[in-house]
Amino acid sequence: MVELYRRTPWWAKVLAIFVIARALTTVMLLVLASVQGENAWTGASPGYFDYATLWDGRWYNIVAGWGYPSELPMTDDGHVAENAWAFMPAYPGIVSALMFLTGLPWGVAAVIVSVVFGLGTALLFYKLMAKVLEPQAALFSVVLLCVAPVSPLMQLAYAESMFLFLIALALYLLLERRYWLLFPVLAVMAFTRPGALAFALALALHVVYRWFTRARDPFPVRERVAAASATVFSGIMGVAWLLIAWAVTGDFSAYTDTELAWRSAYIGYVDLVPFTAWFQGGNWWLHGPLGSVVVAVLILGFAALLFTPIVKRLGVDLRFWIASYALYLLAVFFPQSSTFRLLAPLFPLLGAIALPKSAVYRVAVVIVSLALQLGWLLICWGVDGRDWTPP
Description:
By secondary structure, this protein is mostly helical. It has helices at residues 2-7, 10-34, 48-51, 56-66, 90-102, 106-130, 135-147, 160-176, 182-190, 196-212, 221-238, 240-249, 254-261, 264-267, 277-286, 290-305, 309-312, 316-332, 339-342, 350-353, 359-381. It has 21 helices and no strands.
């Protein structure tokens, strides 16, 4: 048995991990669907594919079927209302293409696309971790990715699995220093989920680091040009959707006002001021200035985490991405139930969690992850009346 395991290729091991993990999640989803009451999206006890298209899945369906409004919908008090501009076109575009080619309905096609990208993410994640960790730790990193609390997104009608695939591919190309190949990846990434600006910052930090370490790690001119060009391109792509929304609607703040509509249920309609939303959220959730103190502690704690020996094992480039994406979230995101989902692009940190070799530790981490996965589905996915905990 041991010999068979050793002879099994890495991709087959990753495939087996992915299939087992998704089967466990499917059982959870089917049980929860069986007790789901009637809601705005489905009737009572919906089938799997209807249940998999709740929440933002319906918005992506709207984008696929009807596109984007040229005139922004407004609330009764004159503010931009929630609308399709918050949801980028790459994922619904691929699902639409699959529907056209196969005749499949939205729910089935959307789940297939998510599962395929989820498997691609798992395969790429192994290759990425194998560049910085030994093979067994890299493989356990994949286990943690596949059973993570928000891993059900790999089989739901959300763009996250596609986004994680593109991030993993971009990070792999970055570690390989194949900068020109980053261009098409970053272009698609920018129209899948927000995050291209974070990758631009990670690339900028990479360029600066390579410049200052060029004495021991040569940084030839051709690589400088390629890396700097990719950095600029990622920054441009990071604002491309905002500019497209402006061009179509005639409103420069169409995209940002649309995003702000989702936080209005918490703190009302406010202007987008970078690096304030987490403090606003902390004060809202904890009903006072203690929230700002907690947020400050979280920021300092996360910064310190990046310099711990176990995280430093991931290498400087992966830490650049982790720091850049975390800074991006701090700059623009309002913390609420979607926070868990939006933390998913920090998945390279799973490599650090995978390092301890104790079998007891690893089994315990998997069990805790599965329990948290069920908790996330109970709190965020299932709909309970006028639910305020969207995933």
